[in-house]
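haha ok so turns out i had the wrong file open the whole time. this is the CORRECT one, sorry everyone. sequence first:
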Amino acid sequence: MVKTQGRHGEVAVELHTGAPERFREDARLFALALDGTRREVTVEESWPHKTWLVLKFAGIDSMSDAETLLRTELQVPVAERAALDAGWNYISDLTGCKVFDGDREIGAIADVQFGAGEAPLLMVTADQGKTYEIPYAEAYLVKLDLAAKQVYMRLPEGILEINSPLSGAEKRKQNKGGE
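then structure:
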């Protein structure tokens, strides 16, 4: 949920679904916070507004109440999920999967980010706390095994270095003005 909308507890939601009709009156959802806690919410009303969907939840009746839901991810209960077309996956199914480039393990998917390009970005956390942004593009995907929580990819050479953290030597060189 991206922002409060109105004075009566409404929130604006950025949709990452092809089925916005699931946010109907009386729909039971879960709001997943950044710290991993979940809170059940029930939709009272919903309507489109600009590029968002505005939702009013039961028991969320003020702007202050709505602020407690900001930056949470809405999740549909697993038993109520819609079947997805081939090639589509739920973010919650991808989170925690180990990513491999060939036989080399890169790390685990911590999050999926949208909006940076055509393909969503897998935010992959490796050992030593490094985070890699890897496009989840069909051209790179070799095999997806959700039961084993594994994603096998064939990545272009150098893609992991594009957004990788600087080494100590690179930081020192950058601080000296590239000398």
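The radius of gyration is 20 Å.
again sry for the mixup
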